[in-house]
Amino acid sequence: MLRRLVQSLPAWARPNHTFLRQYLNDVPLSLKHYLTQQSIVIVGFSLVVIISVALLNILQRFAWSSVASELIWQVLFFPALFLQFLLSVRAMNATISAVGAEKQQQRWDSLRATEEGVALSFRARWASVYYRLAPYLTLAYLVRLVLIVGILYDLTAFRGGYLDLLIANITPTVSLLVATLLLAATMAAAVLLPFTAIGFEASLGLLFSTWFHDRVYRVIVLGVWFILRIGALIFFGTIISRFMGGIDTSDWLVWLSLVMFALLGGWGLVILQLGTFAAIWALLPNSIFLGVLLLGAVFLQALLADYCLKWAIHRAQKQE
After folding, report:
1. 191-227 pLDDT, tens per residue?
2. Residue 293: how many CA atoms within 13 Å on its side-chain side?
3. Which DSSP string do the residues of 206-240 spell out, in sequence order?
4. 29 and 15 in contact (C-beta within 8 Å)?
5. Considering 10, 130, 191, 204, which has the largest number of Cβ atoms within 10 A of its Cβ?
6. Domains in the chain: boundaries
């Protein structure tokens, strides 16, 4: 099955492609290596979880919930957010040196002289990001699996009538079937966001590489970009927190914050706890449709990733 899946990929995305092997020469594509890396990542993540729980207890940041799914969400939220930020950094860092590295290794002229050489090189480098980050992405999806199982478990409460209770006082009124479909759309968006976000980061890195060839400039660009990202996450996260705390906030700003927090690094973590998401439904009119909006944002992000990749290739082909 795995072999069939690999064969369905474009040639430049298959592990045996010349360019891809070249970019992954320090990453053995074996099950043993993957499991080793996965174990290291899981151990590291577990340590971050332990530290996070200890800090939250010291700071008394949360009143710990007695509901199992909410407790798990509280424990995993900040470590998962850190993991996702690390994924973003590594994805862009893996591609922002594309042009500079090829020039440094004196391969740039031969790439430009070969038909489709630059395009194949850029696409293979873009695909290599997923291979490199596979252990981290797997962990991000394991976190999502745990949280989604928590949502499904919560839905069994009150003899399966829990969702009915949650949608009883929301605006607008929707049927149970519609609410179920909208909740499914929300979970789908949270599952797709890491994949499209990594692709977008990698494409943006390739585009930046066509402007910034020197290592110093690349480091500055990366630093500024991610400082701005952290600032934006803190800003939008604070707005969401204030809104959930009952502080009066304009609806449009809350909507903007929920979407931007998801796209800039949250990747749907906020809405992967049913109690929290239901509280947003009750406080923010029409917010039950947030999952549909995020699904649209996912597809837009995928289109932007493709556009950035094509733009990067177009710019690179014209460079000396």
Report:
1. 999 999 999 999 999 999 999 888 888 889 888 988 9
2. 15
3. HHHHTT--SHHHHHHHHHHHHHHHHHHHHHHHHHH
4. yes
5. 204
6. 9-317
- pLDDT tens, residue by residue, 136-157: 899 999 999 999 999 998 888 7
Whether the per-residue pLDDT at 173 is higher than 90: the answer is no
How far is 151 from 156, CA to CA, in rounded Å? 9
Evaluate the omega torsion of the peptide bond into residue 172 and state whether it is cis, within 30 degrees of 0.
Answer: yes
- 28 φ/ψ angles, rounded to the nearest 5 degrees: -60, 125
pTM of the model: 0.89
Average pLDDT in the 10-28 region?
Answer: 77
Where does residue 184 rank: exposed (0-12), middle (13-18), buried (19+ CB within 10 A)? exposed
Structure tokens at 246: 């009952």
Cα distances (Å, whole numbers) of residue 84 to 87, 189, 197, 216, 246: 5, 15, 10, 25, 28
pLDDT number for residue 218:
87
Q: What is the pLDDT of residue 320?
A: 67
Higher pLDDT, 28 or 35: 35
From CA 277, how far away is CA 166, in angstroms rounded? 10
Give the position of tokens 């082909």: 317
Q: Where are the alpha helices (DSSP H) in 25-175?
A: 31-59, 68-95, 98-104, 108-113, 117-132, 134-154, 157-160, 162-166
Residue for token digits 């906020």?
270
**Residues 301 and 200 sit within 8 Å (Cβ to Cβ):** yes
And the tokens for 138? 């797997």
